[in-house]
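Long-time lurker, first post. I've been practising inverse folding by hand and with some scripts of my own, and I keep getting stuck on stretches where the C-alpha coordinates seem ambiguous. Below is the full C-alpha coordinate string for one chain I'm working on. Before anyone asks, I'm not after the true native sequence, just a reasonable design that respects the backbone. If someone could post their per-position residues I'd love to compare against what I wrote down in my notebook.
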Protein backbone atom coordinates (compact mmCIF):
# COMPACT_ATOMS: atom_id res chain seq x y z
CA UNK A 1 0.00 0.00 0.00
CA UNK A 2 1.50 3.40 -0.98
CA UNK A 3 2.62 5.46 2.03
CA UNK A 4 2.51 9.24 2.37
CA UNK A 5 3.55 11.74 5.02
CA UNK A 6 1.17 14.26 6.58
CA UNK A 7 2.29 16.00 9.80
CA UNK A 8 -0.63 16.93 12.07
CA UNK A 9 -3.21 15.70 9.55
CA UNK A 10 -6.62 17.38 9.34
CA UNK A 11 -9.50 14.91 9.70
CA UNK A 12 -13.05 16.27 9.43
CA UNK A 13 -16.00 13.87 9.48
CA UNK A 14 -13.64 10.98 8.79
CA UNK A 15 -12.01 12.71 5.79
CA UNK A 16 -8.29 13.48 5.75
CA UNK A 17 -7.01 16.14 3.35
CA UNK A 18 -3.56 15.81 1.75
CA UNK A 19 -2.08 18.97 0.24
CA UNK A 20 1.20 20.22 -1.21
CA UNK A 21 3.94 17.97 -2.53
CA UNK A 22 2.37 14.76 -1.25
CA UNK A 23 -0.89 15.51 -3.08
CA UNK A 24 1.09 16.18 -6.24
CA UNK A 25 2.96 12.91 -5.77
CA UNK A 26 -0.32 11.02 -5.41
CA UNK A 27 -1.92 12.59 -8.49
CA UNK A 28 0.93 13.31 -10.90
CA UNK A 29 3.63 10.75 -10.10
CA UNK A 30 1.85 7.62 -8.89
CA UNK A 31 -1.37 8.56 -10.70
CA UNK A 32 -3.57 7.14 -7.96
CA UNK A 33 -7.28 7.61 -8.38
CA UNK A 34 -10.47 7.52 -6.29
CA UNK A 35 -10.95 4.01 -4.98
CA UNK A 36 -7.23 3.39 -4.42
CA UNK A 37 -6.12 2.52 -0.88
CA UNK A 38 -3.33 4.49 0.79
CA UNK A 39 -1.59 4.71 4.15
CA UNK A 40 -0.73 8.04 5.76
CA UNK A 41 1.75 8.46 8.61
CA UNK A 42 2.15 11.59 10.71
CA UNK A 43 5.79 11.14 11.73
CA UNK A 44 5.01 10.80 15.42
CA UNK A 45 3.80 7.16 15.59
CA UNK A 46 0.25 7.19 14.15
CA UNK A 47 -0.75 5.65 10.81
CA UNK A 48 -4.01 6.23 8.96
CA UNK A 49 -5.40 3.69 6.49
CA UNK A 50 -7.95 4.90 4.00
CA UNK A 51 -9.25 5.20 0.46
CA UNK A 52 -8.99 8.11 -1.94
CA UNK A 53 -12.48 9.51 -2.56
CA UNK A 54 -11.79 12.75 -4.45
CA UNK A 55 -9.00 14.67 -6.14
CA UNK A 56 -8.88 18.45 -6.46
CA UNK A 57 -6.44 20.79 -8.16
CA UNK A 58 -4.11 20.99 -5.15
CA UNK A 59 -5.40 18.39 -2.70
CA UNK A 60 -6.56 14.81 -2.30
CA UNK A 61 -9.39 13.69 -0.02
CA UNK A 62 -9.08 10.35 1.78
CA UNK A 63 -11.76 8.58 3.78
CA UNK A 64 -10.08 7.13 6.87
CA UNK A 65 -11.25 3.69 8.01
CA UNK A 66 -8.58 2.85 10.59
CA UNK A 67 -6.04 4.66 12.80
CA UNK A 68 -3.36 2.65 14.57
CA UNK A 69 0.10 3.10 16.08
CA UNK A 70 3.15 2.33 13.98
CA UNK A 71 4.54 -1.16 14.57
CA UNK A 72 7.88 -0.69 12.81
CA UNK A 73 9.95 1.28 15.33
CA UNK A 74 13.02 -0.22 16.97
CA UNK A 75 12.81 -0.87 20.71
CA UNK A 76 16.28 0.62 21.18
CA UNK A 77 16.74 4.39 21.25
CA UNK A 78 19.86 5.36 19.32
CA UNK A 79 21.17 8.86 18.67
CA UNK A 80 23.98 9.34 16.16
CA UNK A 81 26.23 12.38 16.55
CA UNK A 82 27.96 12.70 13.18
CA UNK A 83 30.69 15.13 12.23
CA UNK A 84 29.69 17.02 9.09
CA UNK A 85 30.57 15.19 5.87
CA UNK A 86 30.74 16.38 2.28
CA UNK A 87 27.36 16.88 0.57
CA UNK A 88 26.35 13.52 -0.88
CA UNK A 89 28.00 11.54 1.91
CA UNK A 90 25.93 13.34 4.53
CA UNK A 91 22.78 12.80 2.48
CA UNK A 92 23.58 9.10 2.22
CA UNK A 93 24.17 8.90 5.96
CA UNK A 94 20.83 10.56 6.78
CA UNK A 95 19.01 8.15 4.47
CA UNK A 96 20.64 4.96 5.72
CA UNK A 97 20.50 5.97 9.39
CA UNK A 98 16.77 6.56 9.03
CA UNK A 99 16.32 3.14 7.43
CA UNK A 100 18.26 1.56 10.29
CA UNK A 101 15.91 3.04 12.89
CA UNK A 102 17.96 5.84 14.42
CA UNK A 103 16.02 7.98 16.91
CA UNK A 104 17.99 11.18 16.39
CA UNK A 105 20.88 12.62 14.38
CA UNK A 106 23.12 15.39 15.72
CA UNK A 107 25.37 16.91 13.00
CA UNK A 108 28.35 18.76 14.40
CA UNK A 109 31.52 20.59 13.40
CA UNK A 110 34.78 19.06 14.54
CA UNK A 111 38.31 20.40 14.17
CA UNK A 112 38.85 18.29 11.03
CA UNK A 113 35.48 18.79 9.35
CA UNK A 114 36.01 19.57 5.67
CA UNK A 115 32.74 21.28 4.66
CA UNK A 116 32.09 24.78 5.95
CA UNK A 117 28.44 25.66 6.57
CA UNK A 118 28.86 28.36 9.14
CA UNK A 119 26.61 30.77 7.21
CA UNK A 120 23.15 30.47 8.73
CA UNK A 121 21.37 30.46 5.35
CA UNK A 122 23.44 27.56 4.04
CA UNK A 123 23.13 25.48 7.20
CA UNK A 124 19.36 26.09 7.32
CA UNK A 125 18.97 24.98 3.70
CA UNK A 126 20.99 21.83 4.33
CA UNK A 127 18.95 21.06 7.45
CA UNK A 128 15.73 21.28 5.44
CA UNK A 129 17.23 18.97 2.82
CA UNK A 130 18.19 16.42 5.50
CA UNK A 131 14.67 16.49 6.93
CA UNK A 132 13.24 15.83 3.47
CA UNK A 133 15.64 12.92 2.96
CA UNK A 134 14.56 11.46 6.32
CA UNK A 135 10.90 11.76 5.32
CA UNK A 136 11.47 9.97 2.01
CA UNK A 137 13.52 7.25 3.70
CA UNK A 138 10.79 6.77 6.32
CA UNK A 139 8.16 6.42 3.59
CA UNK A 140 10.27 3.80 1.82
CA UNK A 141 11.23 1.68 4.83
CA UNK A 142 7.88 1.77 6.62
CA UNK A 143 8.79 3.85 9.65
CA UNK A 144 6.02 5.73 11.42
CA UNK A 145 8.26 8.02 13.50
CA UNK A 146 10.66 10.46 11.87
CA UNK A 147 14.14 10.74 13.38
CA UNK A 148 14.83 14.11 14.95
CA UNK A 149 17.59 15.92 13.07
CA UNK A 150 19.14 18.58 15.25
CA UNK A 151 20.62 21.85 13.95
CA UNK A 152 24.35 21.94 13.31
CA UNK A 153 26.39 22.28 16.51
CA UNK A 154 29.96 22.68 17.57
CA UNK A 155 31.66 19.68 19.17
CA UNK A 156 31.35 21.17 22.66
CA UNK A 157 27.67 22.01 22.11
CA UNK A 158 27.02 18.44 21.01
CA UNK A 159 28.62 17.07 24.19
CA UNK A 160 26.20 19.18 26.24
CA UNK A 161 23.16 17.69 24.47
CA UNK A 162 23.64 14.07 25.50
CA UNK A 163 20.73 12.42 27.39
CA UNK A 164 21.88 12.00 31.02
CA UNK A 165 21.36 8.25 31.39
CA UNK A 166 22.52 7.08 27.98
CA UNK A 167 25.37 4.71 27.14
CA UNK A 168 27.97 7.01 25.58
CA UNK A 169 30.12 5.59 22.80
CA UNK A 170 32.79 7.33 20.76
CA UNK A 171 34.08 5.65 17.63
CA UNK A 172 37.85 6.05 17.40
CA UNK A 173 39.93 4.13 14.91
CA UNK A 174 43.21 4.55 16.81
CA UNK A 175 42.28 2.70 19.97
CA UNK A 176 39.38 1.77 22.21
CA UNK A 177 37.44 -1.13 23.60
CA UNK A 178 35.78 -3.70 21.38
CA UNK A 179 32.16 -2.71 20.75
CA UNK A 180 30.85 -6.23 21.44
CA UNK A 181 32.41 -6.28 24.91
CA UNK A 182 30.97 -2.88 25.78
CA UNK A 183 27.49 -3.93 24.65
CA UNK A 184 27.64 -7.14 26.66
CA UNK A 185 28.04 -5.03 29.80
CA UNK A 186 25.25 -2.57 28.91
CA UNK A 187 21.62 -2.50 29.96
CA UNK A 188 19.67 -3.76 26.94
CA UNK A 189 16.83 -1.34 27.60
CA UNK A 190 18.92 1.80 27.76
CA UNK A 191 19.46 4.68 25.36
CA UNK A 192 22.63 4.84 23.27
CA UNK A 193 24.38 7.98 22.07
CA UNK A 194 27.42 7.51 19.85
CA UNK A 195 29.84 9.88 18.14
CA UNK A 196 31.45 9.37 14.73
CA UNK A 197 34.10 11.82 13.58
CA UNK A 198 34.93 13.22 10.11
CA UNK A 199 37.02 11.68 7.34
CA UNK A 200 40.21 12.66 9.14
CA UNK A 201 39.04 11.30 12.48
CA UNK A 202 38.61 13.06 15.80
CA UNK A 203 41.58 14.82 17.33
CA UNK A 204 43.18 13.65 20.56
CA UNK A 205 41.80 16.73 22.29
CA UNK A 206 38.26 15.91 21.15
CA UNK A 207 38.58 12.31 22.31
CA UNK A 208 39.85 13.52 25.69
CA UNK A 209 36.89 15.93 25.94
CA UNK A 210 34.55 13.04 25.23
CA UNK A 211 36.17 10.90 27.90
CA UNK A 212 35.63 13.66 30.44
CA UNK A 213 31.90 13.40 29.60
CA UNK A 214 31.98 9.62 30.24
CA UNK A 215 32.20 8.57 26.59
CA UNK A 216 33.76 5.16 26.00
CA UNK A 217 36.08 4.98 22.96
CA UNK A 218 35.26 1.91 20.86
CA UNK A 219 36.52 0.47 17.59
CA UNK A 220 35.33 -2.04 15.02
CA UNK A 221 38.57 -3.88 14.35
CA UNK A 222 41.82 -3.31 12.52
CA UNK A 223 40.56 -1.92 9.22
CA UNK A 224 40.09 1.82 8.83
CA UNK A 225 36.52 2.63 7.81
CA UNK A 226 35.22 5.73 6.12
CA UNK A 227 33.17 7.90 8.44
CA UNK A 228 29.83 7.14 6.76
CA UNK A 229 30.67 3.42 6.64
CA UNK A 230 31.52 3.37 10.35
CA UNK A 231 28.24 5.06 11.30
CA UNK A 232 26.08 2.69 9.23
CA UNK A 233 28.06 -0.32 10.45
CA UNK A 234 27.67 0.73 14.09
CA UNK A 235 23.93 1.24 13.67
CA UNK A 236 23.55 -2.19 12.10
CA UNK A 237 25.49 -3.85 14.92
CA UNK A 238 23.50 -2.05 17.61
CA UNK A 239 20.20 -3.05 16.02
CA UNK A 240 21.37 -6.65 15.71
CA UNK A 241 22.67 -6.90 19.26
CA UNK A 242 20.05 -4.82 21.09
CA UNK A 243 17.31 -3.85 18.65
CA UNK A 244 15.01 -5.55 16.15
CA UNK A 245 17.32 -6.92 13.47
CA UNK A 246 18.49 -10.48 13.08
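-- Answer (accepted) --
I ran through it position by position. Result:
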Amino acid sequence: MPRFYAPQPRIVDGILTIEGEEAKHIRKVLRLRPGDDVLIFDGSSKEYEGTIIKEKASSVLIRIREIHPSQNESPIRITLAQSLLKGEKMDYLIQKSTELGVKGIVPFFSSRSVPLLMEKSRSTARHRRWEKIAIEASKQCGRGVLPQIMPLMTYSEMLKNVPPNSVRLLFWEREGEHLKEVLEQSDRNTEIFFIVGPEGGLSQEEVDAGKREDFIPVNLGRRILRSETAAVCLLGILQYELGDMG
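A couple of notes from the structure itself: DSSP finds seven helices and 14 strands in the chain. Residues 111 and 203 are 7 Å apart (CA to CA). Happy to go over any region you disagree with.
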